[in-house]
Amino acid sequence: MQRQTRTAPRKRPRQERSRATVDAILSATARVLVRHGYDDLTTNAVATAAGVSIGSLYQYFPNKTALVAALLDRHIEDMNAAVLAELTRVAQLPLAEASRCVVELTIRAHAVDPELHRVLTEQVPRVGKLARLRELDEICHRMVAGLLAARKDELAIRDPDLAAFVLVSTIEAIVHRAALLYPHRLRDPRLIDETTLLVTRYLGLAAN
Amino acid sequence: MQRQTRTAPRKRPRQERSRATVDAILSATARVLVRHGYDDLTTNAVATAAGVSIGSLYQYFPNKTALVAALLDRHIEDMNAAVLAELTRVAQLPLAEASRCVVELTIRAHAVDPELHRVLTEQVPRVGKLARLRELDEICHRMVAGLLAARKDELAIRDPDLAAFVLVSTIEAIVHRAALLYPHRLRDPRLIDETTLLVTRYLGLAAN
DNA sequence: TTAAAATGCGAGCGTTCGCTCACATTGTCT
DNA sequence: AGACAATGTGAGCGAACGCTCGCATTTTAA
After folding, report:
1. In chain A, count of helices (H) and strands (E)?
2. DSSP tag of B207
3. Which residue of A has its CA nearest to B35?
4. Mutate which of A103, A169, A187, A205 to test chain B, going by most B C-beta atoms within 10 A?
5. In 3D, which of B198, B134, B207 has the Cα closest to residue A198?
6. How far apart are CA B132 and CA A35, in angstroms?
């Protein structure tokens, strides 16, 4: 399997000075990652780009993997906090409306620094964060399943769990694929319409 | 950007002996890749696993990247030949039936050496084969769009192109996600049913 | 049979890069 | 002011690994 290096941070910054250092290192990591890719990302390059010595870098990150893992963690948590909060809020709305909101939400989430998102997505398995990602996936999945189960009688579905799997996969995938392969489609409102249509027709909510 | 090494093979094997060598090298690459991941795949390890000297390996592959690229090429072409052929055949069937066939087909395609498929999927962008992948994607996309356009009057869709994008993304994604995260679902016939339902309801073909 | 081409071999060269360590500087506390 | 902790520095060590090259063996063809 993958070389599963320990990715926990080495030491937590106490003073303001060092917190700035850690921040500089992380943003430098992001820049180098986007410009050069993971393979050509060297710890020395990151240190230089951050305007920090290589020694300082190793005060806070035990190895190269931990560096990217930390960045990924931050990215995942940021992204997910937004999504989960919104998902909860949306649960109150009529289902047709909720569907559209979720689609829009997913698109918005992918539109924040898509380049970084792409690189990070590609590196997830190498950095050993698949588990965490799967965990969050599971949470989304269950929230949607709950939402569907609560309104089962308005819907044309039998198994809310299975339906949730299908829906979460679908929405995430359409947006993800659009973001990676056809970024212009993300700006196309018709993509939102069409994806929403897919969802509502599947759920048996469609007016037309 | 990525270190875009030349990935073209160095020399084509002429005799039977060398063809066997190249084959051994490629299957060894697959084995090592699955067992150790790309990062821990070394050319020396591949050579050893193939029962071939490192010198011989470099007779046919200019570098490590080319090795993985060749394997990936083979995998992509194999997978896609099957899919495209079947897609053509299915185009004759009634749409409801065709939908189910395509879903089943996609699942079958992912069930062939899923471990290798997973590793390769994760490694694709780093080997510079994204372009080829996108090309094949485009072909699928256009075939489906053509199929939808031809029977537009039976369907509840406006833009066959957009609908094709949505459908191809959807089916691929559900299967892909199931294969990577929840392999047991691939054996669950209800997944096929449910995905087919998603497709047919979206297209306005559903009986129920 | 024999020359040339194709193929196979593997010790080890050269480079890259992750990472340490001994020391310097800055901040905190009393 | 002095002492101790926190933080910052960067030359360079060591190991890993991609890849070459000179030579051995096998196959082809005349």
Report:
1. 9, 0
2. -
3. A1
4. A169
5. B198
6. 22
- Classify residue B12 by burial, with Cβ atoms within 10 Å: 0-12, 13-18, 19+: exposed
The radius of gyration of chain A from alpha carbons, rounded to an integer in Å, stands at 20
Distance of alpha carbon A190 from alpha carbon A192, whole angstroms: 5
Q: At B127, which amino acid appears? A: V
Residue B55 neighbours by CB distance under 10 Å: 8
Give the span between the Cα atoms of B169 and A104, in whole angstroms: 17
pLDDT digits (tens, 9 = 90+) for B17-36: 999 999 999 999 999 999 99
Q: CA geometry: angle at B170 spanning B166 and B142, to 5°?
A: 50
d(CA B102, CA B96): 10
Among A141, A174, A208, the residue to mutate for chain B (most B Cβ within 10 A)? A174
Tokens 């909101």 label which residue?
A101
CA neighbor of B151 nearest in space, from B199, B106, B102, B93: B93
Say how many C-beta atoms besides its own lie within 10 A of residue B124's C-beta: 19
Q: How many CA atoms lie within 13 A of B117 on its CB side?
A: 20
Give the pTM: 0.86
pLDDT tens profile A146-178? 999 999 999 999 999 999 999 999 999 999 888
Q: What is the DSSP letter of B10?
A: S
Measured between beta carbons, which residues in chain B are less than 8 angstroms from residue A182? 165
Contact B194, A166 (CB under 8 A): yes
Task: Give burial (CB, 10 Å; 0-12/13-18/19+) of A85.
Answer: exposed
Closest nucleotide to B44: CA versus each C1' = D17
**What is the CA angle B46-B47-B51, rounded to 5?**
115
Query: What Cα–Cα distance (Å) separates residue B73 from each residue in A89, B1, B64, B76?
Result: 46, 22, 14, 5
Instruction: Pick the closest to residue B178 from B163, B194, B165 (CA basis).
Output: B194
Describe chain A by its helix, strand, coil percentages, rounded to 5: 75, 0, 25
